[in-house]
Write a structure and sequence with these properties.
Structural class: mainly alpha
Radius of gyration: 29 Å
Number of helices: 6
Protein name: Transposase
Oligomer: single chain
Order of helices and strands: HHHHHH
Distance between the termini: 57 Å
Helix content: 40-55%
Number of strands: 0
Mean pLDDT: 86
Shape: flat
């Protein structure tokens, strides 16, 4: 856009960025050309694992915690993945580093649904349809007002 004569204001408006950023880009472009504006890659430190190690780690994760020696439950925690990386590659990661690595690999946190083992879904549905409306009452009976005892509702 700068080569075509666009001003920093026009670039900022077209790309929906601040004018300050566009002016900084223009200065960079003026001194170093289009190559100076090229991406330098994602920010932050490089991963400690190479692609072959990452592939091995993913295979180990897919096999599950039991295959790695955890028999209590079958959930991967950040602490377990950190330990697994240490065992497999003799590389130390922080829990935050493990979370970032897993995120880059497309793994997401999974939160199990906590439900009582004795839960009866049919009974819950019946209660919601029959008992709850009686307990709740109608919305028409609700009176709008102020929650403050010192400031009455202004109508």
């Amino acid at each position: 856009m700068f080569e075509q004569g666009a001003t920093a204001v026009e670039v900022a408006h077209a790309l929906e960025v601040s004018e300050k950023s566009a002016r900084a880009w223009r200065r960079t472009w003026t001194t170093g050309g289009a190559e100076a504006l090229a991406s330098k890659g994602p920010p932050g430190p490089k991963t400690k694992l190479n692609q072959r190690q990452i592939t091995r780690l993913e295979h180990a994760l897919l096999e599950g915690p039991a295959a790695a020696g955890w028999r209590e439950d079958q959930r991967w925690t950040l602490a377990r993945v950190k330990t697994l990386i240490g065992r497999m590659f003799h590389i130390s990661y922080s829990l935050k580093g493990v979370a970032l690595l897993l995120h880059r690999l497309g793994w997401t946190p999974q939160v199990p649904v906590h439900r009582a083992a004795e839960r009866n879904d049919d009974a819950v549905t019946t209660w919601r349809k029959t008992t709850w409306p009686q307990v709740k009452g109608s919305r028409a009976g609700w009176v709008r007002g102020s929650a403050s005892s010192t400031k009455p509702d202004k109508r």
